[in-house]
Write a structure and sequence with these properties.
Blueprint lengths: L1 H10 L4 H18 L7 E8 L17 H9 L1 E3 L2 E2 L4 H10 L25 H7 L3 E7 L17 E5 L11 E4 L2 E4 L4 H15 L5 E10 L7 H4 L19 H27 L6 E7 L21 H4 E2 L1 E4 L8 E3 L3 E2 L3 H9 L15 H4 L11 E5 L2 E5 L3 E3 L5 E3 L15 H24 L5 E3 L4 E5 L4 E3 L3 E2 L9 E2 L7 E8 L3 E10 L8 E6 L4 E5 L27 E10 L2 E11 L7 E9 L1
Parallel strand pairs: 1-8, 1-9, 2-12, 3-13, 4-5, 4-8, 18-23
Antiparallel strand pairs: 2-11, 3-10, 5-6, 6-7, 9-11, 14-15, 15-16, 16-17, 19-29, 20-23, 21-22, 23-28, 24-27, 24-29, 25-26, 25-28
Helix pairs in contact: 1-2, 6-8
């Protein structure tokens, strides 16, 4: 480009020196100001358990989030953007444009977050259109292939597939299905990998999904972000201040400032790569705040289907294509992002199943259209909440005028009986329809043999006898307290390809407990056994950076032990890990089973 510009300048009679300076200026101007003719890149940043009120731009003076705030200044804000009450459902709705019960997702643990393999994801669509696709962070929509992100349209994946992770400093992670060790604080590390992906693919369009996993617990954050908040009494508090855990708030605020710093790094990288003008940046969260803290006076938090549990910050920036500093008042949700982003870049949203979302492009680009009234439905088990443009019908049948009463303080159902009846009908119908999906996908085994290697974590197993989980939440727990030969661990599996599989158990064993003999057996099938001959009893990870008084999280390293080769026949059955002999007080602690097809 520079050589062409110099020739152009000399052609107009300039000296070589003047022509060179003119050419440099012209080249810089073209790189930074002229629109790129290729399809725009997409960067989607999704945070975990960050409430609408956890940002400076939304009025929280307890912290500073200048980089995230800049997305509102330089892009458009959706003022009434809604997600689900917990993590995996929101991710499913974003990925598919469909209400989450339809996708196979019903919860957050023990396989409930798996996204059905026959669903078309937004990554599938972008990949089919020639985009390079990458995801960096918390997946939470399935671990075993074909649920793993590398089988859902993502060329590159780095992060963890579970619902949450037990440690945030150099933890074990997943890189394209391989076990690796993270480098430093997890959000910084995820950002590093996302930026490397953008740089490696700067010459072609890319779809970069960055699902950060904070401020989800454990409340771990580096000193340089926490020191500002240590000992601080937040000025702004939750509307029910007696419910607020100030230690939790301090940690969450520090984690949010770390997120902001990393968002700044991503935006700066786009500038350095001269991609700012041709990159759409989206920012939102997956549910309400994970504790009682300031959230604009809204009712509820994570886990509830009130405003405070469902309303998310949302900003979208695309210089010159989406107005800067604009605000959209119409209600919108995570289900709208697939049709919106595909239309923005000119990709057909051709999915296997009908989507529930609508394209927001007319609103974002201020097109003159008649926007159709709509409602957004939120479900938690058999409870449904309905949001129209003006009202919210809560799970108890109360009606609130959100335009006048965002905090849901006054029931106005008697003043608006017809509206209440209409929304109640919609809620009842939605509950009935979604129940059929919940029931259909309630009984799903874990797939084995779809890929060469399959991992069955403790999260997906069931403990029997004296065996216990290391944490209340199964998502990032391991099995411990194995004291009897009558104890066992089982996994409900379906073998999709019969064959011989090398079985590996990831274990720890205290001194004096070595010598236990383990057996892995498939119901009505083969079995394999081996002795635990090597003591491996590492310390728990350092928790000095965890900022709350009580924590259920304990994590440590685990060592692989090859049990041998087991023959697995095609079909469904129970895989059982048992102890034929225990020589010490206990057998082993179990992190996972890996099955490698030979």
């Amino acid at each position: 480009m520079l050589t062409v510009a110099i020739k152009f300048a000399i052609g107009f009679g300039m000296t070589k020196q003047v022509g060179f300076l003119f050419a440099v200026f012209l080249t810089w101007n073209m790189d930074y100001c002229m629109p790129d003719e290729r399809q725009p890149n997409i960067v989607v940043i999704l945070t975990d358990d960050q409430g609408w009120g956890d940002l400076g731009v939304n009025g929280n003076s307890n912290l500073a989030t200048p980089n995230i705030d800049s997305l509102a200044r330089d892009g458009t804000t959706l003022e009434s953007f809604y997600v689900c009450q917990v993590c995996a459902p929101t991710r499913a709705e974003f990925l598919t444009g469909r209400y989450y019960p339809k996708t196979g997702v019903s919860g957050v643990s023990r396989g409930q977050g798996r996204l059905n393999p026959d669903e078309t994801t937004i990554a599938d669509l972008f990949k089919a259109a020639g985009y390079v696709t990458g995801a960096f962070g918390k997946w939470h929509n399935g671990t075993q292939p074909p649920y793993h992100p590398n089988f859902r349209g993502f060329d590159e994946y780095y992060g963890f597939t579970s619902g949450h992770w037990g440690h945030y400093f150099s933890p074990p992670l997943d890189h394209n299905g391989r076990r690796v060790r993270g480098n430093g604080f997890i959000i910084d590390d995820l950002t590093d990998h996302a930026m490397e992906f953008m740089e490696a693919n700067k010459e072609k369009p890319f779809f970069c999904y960055v699902p950060f996993n904070t401020p989800h617990s454990p409340m771990m954050v580096d000193d340089r972000f926490y020191q500002k908040f240590e000992g601080q009494d937040p000025v702004l508090k939750h509307r029910d201040a007696d419910k607020e855990d100030v230690m939790m708030t301090r940690a969450a605020l520090a984690m949010c400032e770390n997120i902001d710093w990393n968002v700044g790094r991503i935006l700066k990288k786009l500038d350095e790569l001269k991609l700012r003008g041709n990159t759409i940046v989206v920012y939102f969260s997956d549910n309400g705040p994970n504790s009682f803290r300031w959230n604009g006076g809204m009712k509820g938090k994570k886990g509830t289907i009130d405003e405070g549990g469902l309303r998310s910050p949302f900003f979208i920036r695309w210089p010159e294509k989406i107005p800067a500093g604009n605000s959209v008042s119409q209600i919108a949700g995570a289900i709208d992002l697939l049709p919106t982003l595909t239309e923005l870049v000119g990709i057909e949203a051709k999915t296997n199943k009908p989507i529930d979302g609508v394209s927001l492009v007319p609103l974002l680009q201020e097109q003159t259209v008649q926007w159709q009234p709509r409602t957004l439905l939120s479900i938690k088990n058999d409870q449904v909440s309905v949001r129209s443009q003006q009202f919210r019908l809560d799970a108890n049948g109360q009606l609130f005028d959100i335009l006048a009463d965002r905090g849901q303080t006054t029931d106005v159902s008697e003043q608006h009986p017809e509206v209440t009846r209409q929304l109640l009908r919609q809620a009842k119908q939605h509950a009935e329809q979604m129940k059929t999906h919940f029931d259909a996908y309630a009984d799903r085994p874990f797939t084995i043999g779809f890929a060469d290697s399959t991992t069955l974590p403790a999260r997906d197993g069931i403990e029997h006898g004296t065996i216990k989980r290391s944490a209340k939440a199964p998502n990032n727990s391991f099995f411990t307290n194995w004291t009897s030969v009558n104890d066992s661990i089982t996994w409900d599996i379906e073998v999709v390809n019969r064959g011989t599989y090398e079985a590996i158990v990831y274990y720890t064993c205290a001194a004096g407990d070595d010598g236990a003999r383990l057996q892995l057996a498939m119901e009505n099938g083969g079995s394999v056994s081996a002795s635990v001959d090597e003591v491996f009893d590492p310390p728990f990870y350092d928790k000095s950076k965890e900022r709350v008084a009580k924590s259920q999280y304990i994590q440590k390293d685990f060592k692989p032990l090859t049990l041998g080769s087991i023959q697995l026949e095609k079909g469904r059955g129970t895989l059982t890990l048992s102890a034929l002999e225990i020589k010490g007080k206990r057998a082993i602690d179990v992190h996972s089973i890996e099955l490698i097809r030979r």
